[in-house]
């Protein structure tokens, strides 16, 4: 009788473990999907911000270039056109960011760094562990209890 009861309990325990494993896997998959959606939304916001900034900077660049060109012709000083050169680099960068392949090149470089220079990505003092977090939490709790006295 006891053997049958223990066998039944063991089967229930195994089913419970399988259910918990399935549930934790499902929860992790949901978290990964959510994190990826948040990353995609942040990237979309960054690209949208670049496109909006490009509209304003493009207008500024056009007016500044026109004004500097007119001033250079009237005063016969080619040096007045000097600010157009760095401004054109900024404009080209913003255009690449907003509509070009800058994001693809940055992603490729990041992947290269992750493969060939992974030591640059190490967290100082290594990844936090449960033990290190608990030790810090206990130290703070101890300190706050001392301060209360």
Low-confidence stretches: none
Mean pLDDT across every amino acid position = 92
Roughly how many Å apart are the termini? 58 Å
How much helicity do the residues have?
A: over 70%
Query: From the alpha-carbon coordinates, what is the Rg to the nearest angstrom?
Result: 30 Å
Number of domains: 1
Query: Helix-strand pattern, N to C?
Result: HHHH
Number of helices: 4
Verbal overview:
- This protein has 149 residues and is mainly alpha-helical.
- The chain has one domain (2-117).
- It has 4 helices and no strands.
- The chain has helices at residues 2-75, 84-99, 102-116, 130-148.
- Helix 1 (2-75) packs antiparallel against helix 2 (84-99).
- The protein is elongated.
- It starts with a helix and ends with a helix.
- The mean pLDDT is 92.
- One of its GO terms (cellular component) is plasma membrane.
- It holds the Pfam family DUF2368.
- One of its GO terms (biological process) is positive regulation of plasminogen activation.
- This is Plasminogen receptor (KT).
- It comes from Culter alburnus.
